[in-house]
Amino acid sequence: MATVSEPAGKVAPAEVATGSSSRTRPRTWFERNHFWLRRLHSLTGVVPVGGFLIYHFWENATALQSNTKWDEMAVHARDIQLLFFVEFGLILLPLLYHALYGLFIASYARVNVAAYGYARNRLFMWQRVTGIILVLYIVYHVMVLRFGAFASGAASYDIMAQHLSNPLIFAFYTAGILSASFHLGNGLWAFLITWGLTVGKRSQRISQWVTTAISVAMSVLGMAIIIAIVASRGGFTL
User: Which residues are within 8 A (CB) of 170 and not within 5 positions of it... i.e. 6 or more apart?
Assistant: First the structure.
């Protein structure tokens, strides 16, 4: 399998934490297993986290039909059998690992965009930036809605519309949607390389166009959803 070099400015944990002293002390467990931990991080970003994100956008697109359709979707989602197992085992745990290990990667990465203004170096930087934004966004979204307003029953379109009608919250959701869309598309491009599915320049160039199209499509869909929800309430209110 062809190897793919790390993006410019990216340094392995052992190099950052130890420098030349790495030869004189035992490597940590993370350093010894970095190869497999990175691949698990890549895999969880696509399956199941990425798949769930696409599904979540798709089900919320019912807001483009009517508030009644959206409420029906919310009731159906809450009635899924073994909902706790699905949410905790298939979504929350993989998401938690992907987020925490992603923050670990971001903590040691050296992104020298000023010195190395390559496109892939900039995309690497934005992948880390959007990852941090997403951690904040997901924590807020889950705590305020899933375990807050909607903890005792199905989600409500009216409550969601009231929530998004606050301009500051709408701006935060905009940042979350755009970050999620970019992070998934760019992460999928890297996933294809990491797992040896696109090893040539031509295949990587084609996958770049495809994954960029996915990011743009999800951004447009996500923004259309929250705009439609706010518009149905008559616009922003403070």
Answer: 164, 226, 230, 236
Q: Who contacts 105 (Cβ-Cβ below 8 Å, separation ≥6)?
A: 38, 41, 128
Three-state SS across the chain?
CCCCCCCCCCCCHHHHHHHHHHHCCCCCHHHHCHHHHHHHHHHHHHCCHHHHHHHHHHHHHHHHCCHHHHHHHHHHHHCCCCHHHHHHHHHHHHHHHHHHHHHHHHHHCCCCCCCCCCHHHHHHHHHHHHHHHHHHHHHHHHHHHHHHHCCCCCCCHHHHHHHHCCHHHHHHHHHHHHHHHHHHHHHHHHHHHHCCCCCCHHHHHHHHHHHHHHHHHHHHHHHHHHHHHHHHCCCCCC
Q: Give the global pTM.
A: 0.84
Residue with tokens 């500051």: 168
* 166-211 pLDDT, tens digit each: 999 999 999 999 999 999 999 999 999 999 999 999 999 999 999 9
How many other β-carbons are positioned within 10 Å of the β-carbon of residue 7? 18
